[in-house]
């Protein structure tokens, strides 16, 4: 399976990229946690789609029987 092997230089670059990517993910996680815990509101909160008001859905308004 030699075709799966990477040259040492490329493997080192890939490891560095992965390490930095996970470090950035961890940093974002800590920043969001600190923002929520301290109530700073630096990062905008976006509510989940399921939390939207049901009355905004035209399908529900037509079939709810409200006008009948």
Question: Explain this structure to me?
Answer:
The protein has one domain. 54% of the residues lie in helices and 0% in strands. It has 68 residues and is mainly alpha-helical.
SSE topology:
Elements: H1 8-38, H2 58-63
How many structural domains? 1
Distance between the termini: 70 Å
- The gyration radius over C-alpha positions equals 24 Å
**Number of strand elements:** 0
Number of helices: 2
User: What fraction strand?
Assistant: under 5%
Structural class: mainly alpha
Average per-residue pLDDT, rounded, comes to 81
Give the low-confidence spans.
none
The major sheet is characterized as: none
Oligomer: single chain
In N-to-C order, the SSE pattern is HH
In short:
Helix content is 54%, strand content 0%.
Which tags fit this structure?
68 residues, mainly alpha, 2 helices, 54% helix
